[in-house]
Amino acid sequence: MSVRARLMWDDGVTGYDFGSSHPMDPVRLSLTMGLVRAYELDRAVEVTSAPVAGDSTLRLVHDQEYVDAVRRVSLDPRAADGSYGLGTMDDPAFEGMHEASALIAGLSVGAAEAVWRGEAAHAVNFAGGLHHAMPGSASGFCIYNDAALAVARLLELGAERVAYIDVDVHHGDGVQTAFWDDPRVLTISLHEHPRTLFPQTGWAEETGGGAGEGSAVNVALPAGTGDDGWLRAFHSVVPELLADFRPEALVTQHGADTHFDDPLAHLAVSLDAQRAVQASCHELAHEYVEGGRWVALGGGGYAVVDVVPRSWTHLVGIAAHAPVDPESEVPESWKSQVYARTRQLGPGRMTDGRTPTWQPWEAGYDPADRLDQAVLATRKAVFPLRGLLP
């Protein structure tokens, strides 16, 4: 019998560790799982691990030459010289790199298999969402692109239409690249404008190539965009495209680095708006996806105590149909864990105290507004290619 939701977890994911000076601190993962347990959400989902992704699985997206290179530097990090993007400031080599990266990939692939086979309606891997890794190189803190691998595995299992939605502050460039000319995959990325943020891609004019023209969608948001604009952009693009595409499975990436406290980017989104988009993705899965098949992944997020654990605990609760009350007090047991691990004081509630609102696109737009200009650029670039009005 299938379960409502599956949470992919293995303590081994905390081995994905670039070192103490790197912003991607794996404590964000252990603290998230601790908060999930503190709210007893582990009783509302089936918590399970999955096999490490083998070479044949990794080759669904990555070149074997690159996988071999990751394995070599995993054994001897001192041998990393920047080739294949390994041993750089963003992606320093560490012992066990291949094993930790392949485990995260295996969990996302396992999530995809579970929803496709009907073992669970929804599956979450908040350790995943490493969307920058390219077929032949590491990039942007990402070694293996588990998000693209989950999509590729769904196609291998027989899916003919898979939608991928990425709301990380950074462009989902690696996933877009993997399916650039594949009309079976619709990639939608909402991100800070490439003029002001890595990886300097994700312009509205990037719409896919060859048979996949019109299947890549990019909403490049002005720096400083807050809750209302972020939600307006999401709802002005995503639902209409999903209604037209009618995916057989939905994969979403929920990087928490859109938050106003995140140290590496320039959007001004609250936890409450992040939660609203998570809930919208859940609703869209039930409305437009057969069987409600939904794979939800984590991603970026470098406010590792105050933001990431709360955001992704909300995601788990939403997927489990057991949402956490935003007004609830954070359990004292978890705050004790935070202090023991980080010597920081954890947040007191599961909300930032915001009540986001947004105006639907159909109500009209302001041609002088930078947010509306971004949305209109995307609609003009993509919607006619899909037979939709801009």
Name a few traits of the molecule.
390 residues, 11 helices, eight-stranded parallel beta sheet, globular, alpha/beta
Radius of gyration: 19 Å
Question: Helical residue percent?
Answer: 25-40%
Query: What separation lies between the terminal Cα atoms?
Result: 44 Å
Structural class estimated from helices and strands: alpha/beta
Number of helical runs?
11
- Biggest sheet, spatial arrangement of strands: 2-1-3-8-7-4-5-6
Summed over residues and divided by their number, the pLDDT gives a mean of: 97
Query: Which consecutive residue ranges, at least 5 long each, have pLDDT under 50?
Result: none
| β-strand amount | 5-15%
Order of helices and strands: EHEHHHEHEHEEHEHEHHH
Biggest pleated sheet: 8 strands, parallel
Number of strands: 8
- The shape is globular
Protein model, in words:
This protein is of the alpha/beta class. It is built from 11 helices and 8 strands. The chain has an 8-stranded parallel β-sheet with strand order 2-1-3-8-7-4-5-6, with helices on both faces. The model has no long low-confidence stretch (mean pLDDT 97).
Walk me through the topology:
Elements: E1 3-8, H1 27-38, E2 46-48, H2 55-58, H3 64-75, H4 97-116, E3 120-125, H5 146-156, E4 162-166, H6 173-178, E5 185-192, E6 216-221, H7 227-245, E7 249-253, H8 271-288, E8 294-297, H9 308-319, H10 332-342, H11 370-382
Parallel strand pairs: 1-2, 1-3, 3-8, 4-5, 4-7, 5-6, 7-8
